[in-house]
Amino acid sequence: MAHDNNIKTYFPEITPRQEEQFEALYDLYSDWNSKINVISRKDIENLYPHHVLHSLGIAKLIHFRPGTEIMDVGTGGGFPGIPLAILFPETHFLLIDSIGKKIKVAKAVAEAIGLENVTLEQKRAEEVKECFDFVVSRAVMPLKDMVRVIQKNIKKKQQNSLPNGLIYLKGGDLEEELRPYKRFAICEDLRDYFKDEYFDTKKIVFIAL
Questions:
Q1: DSSP 8-state secondary structure symbol assigned to residue 206
Q2: Residue 129's CB: how many other CB atoms inside 10 A?
Q3: 150 vs 111: CA distance, rounded Å
Q4: Percentage helix, strand, coil, to 5, in the chain?
Q5: Where are the beta strands (DSSP E) in the chain?
Q6: What's the pTM value of the predicted model, to 2 decimals?
Q7: CA 98 – CA 102 distance, rounded (Å)
Q8: Crossing angle between the packed helical segments 16-35 and 100-112, to the nearest 10 degrees
Q9: Each residue of 94-138: pLDDT tens digit?
Q10: How far apart (Å, rounded) are the C-alpha atoms in residues 62 and 132?
């Protein structure tokens, strides 16, 4: 097997059904990617560490309670939303992207693996009126722009171990970007959780909003 699906190494508690869903992602994304490019061609071999596991880094920071509502902004082909939706079947996810063909791929993948806790829409975050416990995203815009756009979408009432807010996956040195949020932010290195060298510079940021 060329692709290394090591999800169970890091999440030993997953059920056989979840294992099956994770395993199915490789063929589905490989197939769709040949038609509509959502992951760079040479990166498809690294689907598990670079995309699936990276998305699941969020689960190392927080275990979403059943009934939690989450919006994934700029989901592209479904990251981090789809891997998280597999891991947290009792949590509801809205995945949005402004590019229709990316949403088409994410929708097809979600349907193929029988995900019933995701809704997918082609729209920009500015257009979303509903409120959520958390907004998740892989660095699609600078932190301050993201906070400005999604502040209106965060529910007041909280039900999780962390206050409601933004959970962002980003690489590099974030000190400057995080300065305005110092008092409300957590920043952790993903290399503390995952062994692949890809994670050496990757971070997970949480900002309470």
A1: E
A2: 6
A3: 27
A4: 45, 20, 35
A5: 69-73, 92-97, 118-122, 134-138, 165-171, 185-189, 202-208
A6: 0.97
A7: 8
A8: 140
A9: 999 999 999 999 999 999 999 999 999 999 999 999 999 999 999
A10: 15
